[in-house]
């Protein structure tokens, strides 16, 4: 039995897709100069809001390529929407969180400024654009069709914005907490998870979170790096809701 050919996947915002899709910019460079695709080659396109399109290349030029759309598929959003609120970290750690959170189907990513946030945050819009590019790459690689919302806000803003099941991950040095798996349940429709910086949360931040009905949870008996904690908690939550 022959194997199905794997279609190359591209990302385009929905306004660039109708009966035809117009590919420009970085995606055009990848299609034409890296993959060296030809007219007639079949590809698939995700618009990041649940729609997947199958089509073939009808023209390839210097500034754009056109794709004739043959099939449209809608993928339902996840039953449980996960919002991750990691503290702002150094570049490599932050990039890893954005990538893995997108691969694991996170609905929203709100990077928080906490008391122990070390880097000085400048050029917020440029950072968000960079993170969005990383998320788009992860979206295409993973087969996920929902691009997470990405933003930057203060820790208190994130705490106030949260709804549904609210969790704040704390390490063994920050106090006692119950393992996160104990609080997951099939009735939840939104889960907000806060992850602290390398120095952890301050006592005041943990108090503020508790006042807003956040539950302190543990991920491990060991001290985890922030990026490890983010991937660990998302993996636990993702696995739980895929089985329930």
Automatic annotation (TrEMBL):
Q: What does this protein do?
A: Specifically methylates the N3 position of the uracil ring of uridine 1498 (m3U1498) in 16S rRNA. Acts on the fully assembled 30S ribosomal subunit.
Q: Which NCBIfam families match?
A: RsmE family RNA methyltransferase (TIGR00046)
Checking PANTHER family in the record gives:
16S RRNA (URACIL(1498)-N(3))-METHYLTRANSFERASE (PTHR30027:SF3), RIBOSOMAL RNA SMALL SUBUNIT METHYLTRANSFERASE E (PTHR30027)
- The segment(s) forming the Ribosomal RNA small subunit methyltransferase E PUA-like domain are 23-70
Q: Where in the cell is it found?
A: Cytoplasm
**From what organism does this protein derive?**
Desulfofervidus auxilii
In its UniProt entry, what is this protein called?
Ribosomal RNA small subunit methyltransferase E
The enzyme's E.C. designation:
2.1.1.193
User: What domain of life?
Assistant: Bacteria
Q: Which reaction does it catalyse?
A: uridine(1498) in 16S rRNA + S-adenosyl-L-methionine = N(3)-methyluridine(1498) in 16S rRNA + S-adenosyl-L-homocysteine + H(+)
Instruction: Read off the lineage from the record.
Output: Bacteria, Pseudomonadati, Thermodesulfobacteriota, Candidatus Desulfofervidia, Candidatus Desulfofervidales
Q: What is its main location?
A: cytoplasm
Keywords associated with the record: Cytoplasm, Methyltransferase, rRNA processing, S-adenosyl-L-methionine, Transferase
- Give the family this protein belongs to, as stated in its UniProt record: Belongs to the RNA methyltransferase RsmE family.
């Amino acid at each position: 039995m022959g194997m199905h050919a794997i279609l190359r996947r591209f990302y385009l915002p929905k306004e660039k897709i109708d009966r035809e899709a117009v590919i420009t910019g970085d995606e055009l460079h990848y299609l034409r100069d890296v993959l060296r695709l030809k007219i007639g080659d079949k590809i698939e396109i995700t618009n990041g809001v649940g729609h997947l399109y199958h089509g073939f290349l009808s023209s390839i030029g210097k500034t754009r390529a056109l794709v004739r759309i043959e099939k449209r598929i809608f993928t339902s959003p996840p039953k449980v929407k996960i919002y991750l609120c990691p503290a702002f970290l150094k570049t490599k750690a932050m990039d890893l969180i954005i990538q893995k959170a997108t691969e694991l189907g996170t609905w929203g990513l709100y990077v928080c400024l906490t008391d122990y946030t070390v880097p000085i945050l400048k050029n917020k819009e440029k950072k968000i654009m960079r993170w969005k590019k990383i998320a788009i790459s992860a979206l295409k690689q993973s087969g996920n069709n929902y691009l997470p919302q990405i933003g930057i806000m203060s820790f208190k803003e994130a705490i106030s914005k949260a709804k549904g099941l609210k969790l704040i991950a704390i390490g063994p040095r920050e106090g006692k907490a119950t393992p996160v798996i104990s609080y997951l349940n099939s009735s939840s429709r939104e889960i907000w998870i806060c992850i602290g910086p390398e120095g952890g949360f301050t006592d005041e931040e943990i108090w503020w979170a508790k006042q807003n009905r956040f539950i302190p949870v543990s991920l491990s008996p060991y001290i985890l790096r922030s990026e490890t904690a983010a991937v660990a908690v998302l993996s636990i939550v993702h696995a739980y809701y895929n089985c329930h």
